[in-house]
Backbone:
């Protein structure tokens, strides 16, 4: 079964190295098309679906609001940019297995 097509309005993108806005638009568009299919099943008429690109971006950027807990920091204690002999290296150590490998290779640092 085809989920349906949707229109996209607006422009812009999230400030990210990854296509977050494209993901947001696609996910929200697909979900809205499924809702439109349910409406069609119930009423016989399928509504048009339009995704507002800037609004989808904001939703994916701001939808986590902790209650009773705090978001963890974006970077852990040893993550970041380090000068190396031939330039710079960026350590991504927020995942425990990444942090363990970096600590092992660098001799066990726990902070900068």
Residues:
């Amino acid at each position: 079964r085809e989920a349906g097509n949707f229109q996209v309005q607006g422009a812009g993108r999230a400030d990210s190295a990854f296509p977050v806005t494209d993901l947001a638009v696609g996910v929200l568009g697909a979900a809205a098309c499924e809702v439109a299919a349910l409406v069609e099943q119930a009423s016989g008429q399928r509504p048009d679906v339009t995704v507002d690109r800037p609004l989808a971006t904001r939703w994916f950027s701001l939808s986590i609001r902790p209650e009773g807990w705090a978001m963890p920091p974006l970077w852990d204690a040893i993550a970041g940019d380090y000068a190396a002999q031939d330039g710079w290296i960026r350590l991504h150590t927020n995942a425990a297995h990444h942090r363990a490998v970096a600590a092992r290779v660098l001799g066990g640092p726990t902070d900068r």
In short: Helices lie at 20-43, 53-62, 96-106. The mean pLDDT is 88. Residues 20-43 form the longest helix (24 residues). The chain is about 40% helix and 15% strand.
